[in-house]
Design a protein that fits this description.
The protein contains two helices and eight strands; from the N terminus they run βββαβββαββ. It is an alpha/beta fold. Strands 1, 2, 3, 6, 7 and 8 form a six-stranded mixed beta sheet that branches. The radius of gyration is 16 Å and the shape is globular.
Length: about 160
């Protein structure tokens, strides 16, 4: 699974001019499932996101997680994170999960986030969304959890 995290002072997502998800300070999580992803990758990615220390402590150092500061999560599906731009000028999206798998993994990710974190808002899977945010820092972090089926072990 692929995600791009943006530390935000606030963020909201709109569909048809209606706000459907909104948070104050926290993380905007742009999320993309790929072809070979499973719930295992979704769970590993969520665990990493919840513990990632990218919020300032009392000394201004990035030492606090979104959980430490009780910040919000705004989770937005974005299959375009799987874009392959190596050939030509039109991105290919063949690595993105099929819509059924993408929706199932997105919904699983959201469900697990809601069980593990107090403040969770979402976008709408496969909708045309407008995302508004105030990027804090700015801090933007890409994360990728490779499927277990293609991970390589280290030196033996």
């Amino acid at each position: 699974m692929i995600s791009v995290l943006q530390r935000v002072a606030m963020a909201k997502v709109m569909v048809d001019e209606n706000t459907i998800g909104e948070i104050g300070a926290g993380l905007l999580v742009l999320l993309c499932a790929e072809q070979d992803d499973t719930r295992l990758e979704a769970d590993q990615l969520l665990a990493k996101i919840l513990k990632l220390r990218i919020f300032p402590d009392e000394n201004g150092r990035m030492n606090r997680s979104v959980q430490d500061m009780n910040g919000g999560l705004l989770i937005v599906s974005q299959f375009t994170l799987a874009a392959d731009t190596r050939k030509g000028n039109r991105p290919g999206f063949t690595q993105a999960a099929a819509p059924e798998l993408g929706r199932a993994l997105y919904e699983h990710f959201v469900s697990q986030a809601q069980k593990q974190h107090a403040i969770v808002a979402t976008g709408e899977f496969a909708a045309d969304m407008q995302v508004h945010l105030i990027n804090d820092g700015p801090v933007t972090i890409p994360l990728r959890i490779a499927p277990a089926s293609i991970k390589h072990s280290g030196p033996q």
